[in-house]
Amino acid sequence: MKVLIPKTAVVILNWNGEKLLKEFLPSVIQNSKEAEVIVADNGSTDNSIEFLQKEFPQIRIIDNKENLGFAQGYNKALEEVQADYYVLLNSDVQVGPNWISPIIELMEKDPLIACVQPKLLSYMERTKFEYAGAAGGHIDYLGYPFCRGRVFNSLEEDNGQYDDIKEIFWATGAALFVRASIYKTLGGLDKDFFAHQEEIDFCWRVKNAGYKVYCHPQSVCYHLGGGSLNKTSPYKTFLNFRNNLYLLYKNLPSNLQYKVFFIRFFLDIIASFSFLFQGKAGEFAAVYKAYIAFCKTKHLIKPKRSQIITPNIKEIYPKSIVFAYHLRGKKKFTDLKF
Fold first, then answer.
1. Residue 114: which CATH number?
2. Is residue 268 part of a domain?
3. Phi then psi dihedrals of residue 328, to 5 deg
4. Per-residue pLDDT tens for 275-316?
5. Are 141 and 319 in contact (CB under 8 A)?
6. pTM for the predicted model, two decimal places
């Protein structure tokens, strides 16, 4: 009896990333023999498409024609992809050998697993976890994201301490394995996020719908980070603060919203003045621009509130990570008690 092998498509969203494609695409092709590798171009104005056509003619290109952002760029591209599993992969990720099979095998064993991420290490400091995902993401009850291996800006060395296959709250969008049927059922990534934290929103909706999110550390990738927006970009700060408000507004139970937003407002004021004291006037202003944008557009977000909201998700840290980190010195994930 013939065993059907699920089809996996690795889709790299590219925007003016010719240099990144030169550096990172070879590892993806070399280590992804069991998958179709696709580059979805988001309206690049450099020579990305010409480069791909010349150097990697075997790679399928989906041309979005314009920069639709991370969320809608993937949504549009994936409409043209037929696969059982999508892998959303950043253009600045080096993948390790045998990075696909362990994750697909895990997902095949449990149909409730919707999303899985590999262990994500730093491309520049290869023994350290990488900021955008590390060994799996969590949030606290106020919506602050952190990871196994990364709390705020404190990055741990990888000593195998998170090498267990573990259910998490959110999986990184830098290397996100997702079951195609669930991606479609939940409507994909929210285009209003444009970029940043859309994967956290998606995973929260996954959780609310009764599915699971995992990290599989036997699959290893190395992420450069900051490929599209500089880490200190005021626009990135704006997106992170605005999108975090969207995230909370969409997914929190109604009885928790007033309390959470009240506390977050004061904490975000403190964060803004921290930027100012560091001489980052652009980031200071970005926090308030984020609140203004949220207030102007929340009526568009309200209809997107999850129809099913699970109030007690065990992967949400029930305390304040800000208090634990800054006042109690809890710099590592293992210092926290859920």
1. 3.90.550.10
2. yes
3. -110, 0
4. 999 999 999 999 999 999 999 999 999 999 877 777 789 999
5. yes
6. 0.94
